[in-house]
Amino acid sequence: MKNFKYELVHEDAKTKARLGKLNIFGKVVETPIFMPVGTLATVKFLSPEDLKKIHAGIVLSNTYHLWLRPGEKIVKQAGGLHKFMNYDGPILTDSGGFQVFSLADTRKINEEGVTFKSHLDGSTLHLTPEKSIQIQMDLHSDIAMSFDECIPYPSDYEYTKRSTERTIRWAKRGLAVHNIDDQALFGIVQGGEYTDLREACAKELAALDFDGYSIGGTSVGEDKPTMYKMIEDAIRYLPQDKPRYLMGVGAINDLLNGIERGVDMFDCVLPTRIARHGTLMTSKGRINIKKAMYADDFTPVDPECDCECCQNYTKAYINHLFRTKEGLGMRLMSIHNLRFLIRLMEEARQAIREDRFKEFKEEILASYPFDERGF
Amino acid sequence: MKNFKYELVHEDAKTKARLGKLNIFGKVVETPIFMPVGTLATVKFLSPEDLKKIHAGIVLSNTYHLWLRPGEKIVKQAGGLHKFMNYDGPILTDSGGFQVFSLADTRKINEEGVTFKSHLDGSTLHLTPEKSIQIQMDLHSDIAMSFDECIPYPSDYEYTKRSTERTIRWAKRGLAVHNIDDQALFGIVQGGEYTDLREACAKELAALDFDGYSIGGTSVGEDKPTMYKMIEDAIRYLPQDKPRYLMGVGAINDLLNGIERGVDMFDCVLPTRIARHGTLMTSKGRINIKKAMYADDFTPVDPECDCECCQNYTKAYINHLFRTKEGLGMRLMSIHNLRFLIRLMEEARQAIREDRFKEFKEEILASYPFDERGF
């Protein structure tokens, strides 16, 4: 038996939000959880110690990127991702599917898999469900993903149906070759914007022996109501006793709306990416630290934040580090934005525990000035 | 009375190497000491906590750079450099003299000071001995430097003599306007390669009320014997009870030869600069981490090193971080090279304590494969 188990601790009285405990091979995290992205076996500018300090429970790493550099064989020789990057917390890997469809050039897809050109050197690569699972087993993450096709939005019904059925067949092929006991494997629900396709996909995957379920194909350009419907259409048919992971979503409103609908896990590169461009999330809304008004502002980025950046430095110093392109600035800003979302999750869990998630969500959405990206 | 005092703890039996304790306004460091350079109020990629972990005693920051960005008034408003950058260890600032002569364009020098163009935007700037001291008082470092002219090598005797005499007059003008009690002020011995000019300069400055003395104008292209002679020609006339600082020197052989001649303090950007290009100093000599042979080398950069990089990561991981241009790699490599030199200083102090500095130096010089830069 795999030592991987989701325990539903408490369901919010008024929404589908749920508080859970996820035992990941002896490492326990509470859900809902936001997972920082460490694309190339490093969350950009952060050390594993920094990750511990911000209470990052699970870290995500990208199979496609690690396959290309340094190659999964190097990581396997190192003793797996945990040893390679010196992170002993839980690590989740994606399947490479999203990167193949978003980064790589001139792809050709058929039943067998996808042929495409590397975004690094243009060389021809071939990824199949089996290959994705093999790479992930070599990387030895704690949680692996099935290989799926990420279709663009909008896609017509016929194409979405054919693609979703193939993604299900790919999920089965991946499941068939996955053979290590200390790695969980998730199925990914696709189906685009079509309720019946999401339903069919969720039902078929739920009947299989996956350790958890992901919701894919959102955040690809659809409007918010459509995205939230996609989530509902998938979650309705997913088992209560397994974790649900909404892939690639990290905007504050999306996180809260996802939690409200029963999502347990999220990841997104946006908090760290916008940090590196000087955009910081605070309890008073977003600020752009490069503005001249911060050059002599000797208050913390967010006085309510407990992170290394806010506890030790002023906006004036961060403004200076950003304008002079210093690495410490990148690090402190990344730490802050990640900690901001991780604290949001901590507060969300507390709200669920106290049956007031609805009020919590509405209070934040009402008070936080969002831009078009939801930050 | 200034709470700034050099105590000579022990002199090596066979050389002029000396073990000292420098009390810097209540913060005590042992000498000889190597000081990491934090040009823009940050040692590139390192946090103050990282600096503590590698036992960096004193950190150097550059007056010229901070004058331009963020401006000394911002730092003053922040409460000084310590508060601005959140470093509570001792901070030394240079005078800006070296940068004016190495970075800035089209300078014009006269008795009053130097007029030149900013290396950032080409705007016309004017720096005088008084202005340099005013900036440093505003930055509120623990140790400030007199403004000096850094002449190129070689320079003819007549020019060197005129320049050195002007540097002495500049030192006196700086001393006259320096008026804060919790900042030490050092005089800088110039004189080029000319023994009599070094002697005259050292003697005249030694007679003035400086808290310590720097040796300037080395490491500007002269050969090693000339450099070591410059050091000897200056130190001979400097008081025993004040610290001596050899500016801008950090190559292993120069550090050891400097210590042997009675130098107490050193700084250099090279360890961090070469780290950012993948060159790491180890007990077996330099390595370039980007070489393909390290891609699957799962041993530490230096098994004898106690730094965060060597204790937690392999060459394979650092090679990966370097090749993928990840900030964590820059940080870990910088930490390693700095710790390497700081450990070398710790060992040098122990050798002096045990009257075996000569043997210590010869052992290292014989075993360490140097390149033309002395690394």
Can you walk me through this structure?
Two copies of one chain form a homodimer. The first copy, chain A, is globular, with a radius of gyration of 20 Å. In chain A, β8 (114-117) and β9 (124-127) form a beta hairpin. The first copy, chain A, starts with a strand and ends in an 8-residue tail after the last helix. In chain A, the strands form five sheets. A six-stranded parallel β-sheet of chain A has the order 4-14-13-12-11-10. A three-stranded antiparallel β-sheet of chain A has the order 1-2-3. In chain A, 57% of the residues are buried. Chain A has helices at residues 48-53, 63-68, 72-78, 81-85, 97-102, 129-139, 157-177, 195-206, 224-235, 252-260, 270-276, 308-312, 315-323, 327-353, 357-367, and strands at 4-11, 18-24, 27-31, 33-35, 59-61, 91-93, 105-109, 114-117, 124-127, 143-145, 184-189, 212-215, 244-246, 265-267, 279-282, 285-288. Chain A is α/β, with parallel strands linked by helices and 375 residues long. Chain A is built from 15 helices and 16 strands. Chain A binds chain B through residues 40-42, 44-48, 69-70, 74, 77-79, 84-86, 295-296, 298, 308, 312-314, 316-317, 319-321, 323-324, 326-332, and chain B through 40-42, 44-48, 69-70, 74, 77-79, 84-86, 295-296, 298, 308, 312-314, 316-317, 319-321, 323-324, 326-332.
Provide the β-strand percentage band of chain A: 15-25%
- Give the helix level of chain A as a range of percent: 40-55%
Low-confidence stretches of chain A: none
Number of strands of chain A: 16
Major interchain interface with per-chain residue totals: A-B, 38 and 38 residues
Q: Characterize the quaternary organization of these chains.
A: homodimer
Trace the largest sheet of chain A across and list its strands: 4-14-13-12-11-10
What class, by secondary structure content of chain A? alpha/beta
Bulk shape of chain A: globular
**Taking Cα atoms only, what radius of gyration of chain A do you get, to the nearest Å?**
20 Å
How far apart are the first and last residues' alpha carbons of chain A, in Å? 41 Å
Helix segment tally of chain A: 15
Q: Quick one: biggest sheet of chain A?
A: 6 strands, parallel
For the residues shown, what is the average pLDDT of chain A? 96
